Amino acid sequence: MKLFRIDQMALVGCMVVVMAPACPAQQWTVLTEPHAPRDTAPASGPISLAPSPDGSLYVGYGALYRRSENETSAQIRLRSPQGVWSVVSVAGRALGAVTRPAGLAVDAQGVLLVSDEGNWRVATRAPDAGWTVLAPQGHGAQEVLGPTAIRFDSQGGLWVADYGRLHHRTPQGDWSVEGRLASLGGFGQGDAWQLPGGMAPLPDGGLLLCEVESVDANGINGLHYRNPLGQWALLDRETEATGIVADSAGNVFTAEPRRNRVRKRDLLGNWTVVAGQGELPGQVLEPQDVALDGQGRLLIADGGNARVQRYDPLAPQTPIPGDVDGDGAVTLFDVQTLLRLTAAITEPGPETLIVGDMNHDGKLNIQDAVLLLRRVAGL
Fold it and tell me: How far apart are CA 289 and CA 89, in angstroms?
């Protein structure tokens, strides 16, 4: 079904409210209940995601990016393949507890790895063996300082980013570490710690890492690429992502909380917005992390909306009469879109004619807009 992605504006009194367009609702599923309406986004919510090979999903909760630490809100929850939720970790300092699970990963055997930024450690949880500490606090290759992102590459190697360093563990269990990110070519030249955000190994053996908060003028925020030889280059200065994931083809998805959006970067370097700002299905507020499940569906930790969303681009779309803008709901925005169509601002396609022809006369005209307005108003 052809959909029109135009900015939606609604007149509210003397104010004009501009909202980001939503993707077709049939493609989006909310896996957790959205928060109750409020004036501002909550200070905590889902911040990390890790699908498991058995179809279950781990979700880490904690303080959102750039919010004050709230240790009492931290926990890790597990969603079974049947949609049943359970708590596997609560807030605290003891082994098995978390204070800010900034990154989650699951290996091929179903072992959960937690990059616990607040407790300064990487911990593991095996289904039958309980919790252990994989990387404690410290300055060594197998020691971490405020770890954030954690990811497996296609060869089974493990990557962990902490405050200024990048750690790698081979499938054989050997650890190595690269020095402070500030000393690496693309990450500034000072002796300052840099804060890494999202990270994603790529099919070509390279790696993407986003620096989201430089502490001095020498730091370079943005999306950086590390090639298989260990050389760094800045790809995009405008991207400040706390979550990154790449599919098997090399397409990259980013969660960017400061800009309230999720984007996709294709193999040619072109960017498109997958989800913009808002509270409808297909819209996000302060998205914290992204992941891909075993079916290639995109999972989003929609932190500001206190929910997890799942996007399936291959899901069938059923036309909804009156849903001219394709967001899965019939609202005043559809009336405005229909008025634009009747004014020939945008040429309608045959699918749009199906949902917008409210009086069934085979064309779009002002009578359709009037009928749609009456429907929205409940008249």
Answer: 19
